[in-house]
Amino acid sequence: MANPMMAFLAFFLPCTRQNVVATLTAIGSILAAFIIATALYSPDMIHNTVEVGGTLVVLTWVVSGAMFSYVKVSIAGMCRDSGWLFHCGVLTQVGSAGGALLMFILVNQVNLFQ
Length: 114
Prior knowledge:
This protein is mainly α. About 80% of the residues lie in helices and about 0% in strands.
């Protein structure tokens, strides 16, 4: 639900400042690092209780998904304005395929998330 809402919000409140987009990307990356850390420590909880840890992980997923959705739409808007929208789409697909390949190797070959 957070992804469509933030993409819709980016339509009405577009962000064309690169430093704001970079800051949101950095914050989202920190949240993603926390998500990966919780996955690596699974099933052991990083936090003392299941309620606090579970709530924090769910909120982190929602906020990071919302941030990355807003950033993605903002970058696409900036690329559209500069005439590089096609190249932005190509790089998005290449990055998605590379990330999927990396995670496949980490999960199935290296057994990192066991």
